Amino acid sequence: MLVSKEDFAKYPFLIGAVEYVKNLDLKTDELSQPEFSAVVTRAETRIEEALIDGITKWESRRGYEIELLSYPVAVIFVSNIDDNYLKKRYSLAEAKRIQSLLKEEVDEKLIEIAISVFGWNVKNLPLEVYQPFDFSLSFIDYLRNAPSFHDYRWKLVNKRLINGEVFLQKDEFSRLISEEVRKYIEKTINTSPKVELNPLLLQRIEHIKQRLNLRKERIRIKDQPQNIISAAYPPCIKNLYDFLISGQHISHVGRFTLTSFLLNVGMKVDKLIELYTPISDFNQRLTRYQVEHIAGVRGSGTKYTPPSCETLKTHRLCPGPDDLCTRIKHPLAYYRRKIRMIRK
Amino acid sequence: MRIKRVKAMKNPQEFIVQKFTEYYRDNANIIPLPTSYKNREFGFILFDKGGMLRHKAFVEPRFFRDFIKSITPSDVYHSAAYYKQPSREMGKKGWIGADLIFDIDFDHLRTPCKVEHEYWTCERCDQVGVGKHPSVCSQCGGSKFKMVAWLCETCLETAKSEALKLIDFLINDFGFPPHDIEVCFSGHRGYHIHIEREEIRQLDQDARKEIVDYVLGTGLKVSLHGLMEVRRRTGHKVIGPDLNSPGWGGKIAKGVYDILVTYNIQQLNEINGISKNMASLIYSQRDKIFKTWNNGNSWGSIKGIGIKTWEKLVETSVDNQSVNIDTVVTIDIHRLIRMPLTLHGKTGLKVISIPSKSLERFDPLREAVAFSKGTLKVYVLAAHRFRIGEDIYGPYRREIVKLPMAAAIYLFCKRAALLTD
Ligand code: SF4
Ligand SMILES: [Zn+2]
Ligand SMILES: [Zn+2]
Questions:
Q1: Which domain holds residue B131?
Q2: Residue B66's pLDDT band (boundaries 50, 70, 90)?
Q3: Within an 8 Å CB–CB cutoff, is residue B89 touching chain A?
Q4: Which of A320, B30, B224, B255 could serve as B321's disulfide partner, Cβ 3.0–4.6 Å?
Q5: Residues 215-234 in A contacting B (C-alpha not used; CB under 8 Å)
Q6: Closest CA to A317 of A305, A331, A336, A327
Q7: Which residues of A touch B247 (CB under 8 A)?
Q8: What is the DSSP pairing of strand B73-79 with strand B52-56?
Q9: Residue B44, pLDDT score
Q10: Is residue A241 part of a domain?
Q11: B33 touches chain A (CB under 8 A)
């Protein structure tokens, strides 16, 4: 069913779309030729849209072919720039575009994508009978993505779960697919082979890099209170922080670690909540509750400290220690020492 | 009969080891190895050493069996996880996946009898007592004590009914076929439930946490299950999930219904947030409420009983309907679990695997007996009334009694008796 050029352009990760591009057998060198300049330009805009708006646009005016081909080119660019923030931001922006497109599609198309691309176990529910639900998805597939949406309505305990199947409405199901798409694109970027780019394309990449740095600079200025020295964050915290600002899923322990770390180095509760809220599924009230709890404003009244390196290692939150790490046992100790080193 | 302790009575440790050795000599060959045993880690607790002998792996069942015969462990475990190289250290094993496991242990169940079945032993001498230990031992002046918990039938029954409740969740909500649900009596205080299915192996910790929360009812928002208030000119009406609806909706409704049917005013008043007046109002209006419950999803439109009150009843309902499992065990994807037909070092009983459909009739204190031959004269320091097999023994206090082997070993393992010559 999903075989038209339009479908391919909308959903360039479809097996058919990938095949189609592959059969064209394009070489990266050819991309600098004039007939592809529209494709390359569109690839560049895709990335810019991701950086600035956080969502790529569905652009059909210049034709489906350009739209389709610009996606793998954008992936090559992003992978070549090799910046964590950009990779995550771009995958998320594409996923958001897809989510909004999926909402407009007929149910069968959603099902086809879920089954053919991701191998999910999903059924379309007959109209009227299961009002207001449209789909039933195996709870195992549901749990691939739902736990990363930190909101009560996504908790399995608040879903209708019958005989292993979670009942879902269309907007929920498209949200789940788009999250899977996001992971899929990120994986594509991370596994895409390194290619030599000719000077013309490298020039384009330089241009994107400038935009990226500008954007990162702005976040830094906006989000960093002066007294907190982010240059002194240990690698684990830097990582989590990058995850957070690029709208990535962070595990429970990860969130606890980051939140308690930032609170301990002096970040204000309100500031932290602000940092959390732009992310799509964060529920403001829940976030406030959790942050205040860790800050000791609520409940037991004890202020929490982040876990030790040892604990972080067992939770795989330690990205691999650097030099200073080998001399400390706790991320806060890292921070204090590093500040002393910077000030010297 | 009060007897002075005589020299001839001795610590039964050696005897226990000898009995465990005999057990494994005679039974090692019938101990089934878990599926894909080559990819699992095995762990053993030894009698004389503290800590666990971990990271063992076996490429053939006979190696496992020879090993167990040669070391006579007090407890035997295998991982719920599958690894590429199970014998390497934790970070280097190469995790492939893990079965889904649940642990129900009466240690964390709230049973009214809990205070009665704890007792202490002095670390230095053989002094024992029921309840909280004293600050110094009256016999030797020592100040270190060990707390020991008896096997309690009431608690075991409670654990079993929790296990049955969990099985209901697993079959009806999660859709697992009954024959894929393995229930094990741990040989001591509870049950664990074990599901081996290809598709659940990959579930990560966050996903397992969601399953735990589902079973515990954690984070449940009743408004998301359809409880709401509709206001009309004629008054208000509360709508809630239907008694027959599947999943948590139906469980909530059933739980509230049970409360209305079985609680008296006093019990209603004990519910957090229900005042004395409210309790009497609910109690007096029960018949009227039941009448509206017959008409689909209406929970009634009784003046004075608003949605806030229903929410309080729902909270208690969720508490009653949820299953009390040990959260950590299910979320931990490297967990070790006890192996069927091995012995539990704290009781001398066997770990028994039970098909889920036979759990209802299962009697742990009879079917888990490992040492059914012979009798033994022992000096009991202190013991509650207890049952092993068909018969009930005790209470005993500093006396010599002749007991069937299983009962004697049970008391030895609990450090509640000494060997006579
Ligand atoms: S060693 Fe400690 S401080 Fe360094 S990255 Fe790992 S967890 Fe963070
Ligand atoms: Zn003593
Ligand atoms: Zn008890």
A1: 114-149
A2: very high
A3: no
A4: B255
A5: none
A6: A331
A7: 159-162
A8: unpaired
A9: 97
A10: yes
A11: no
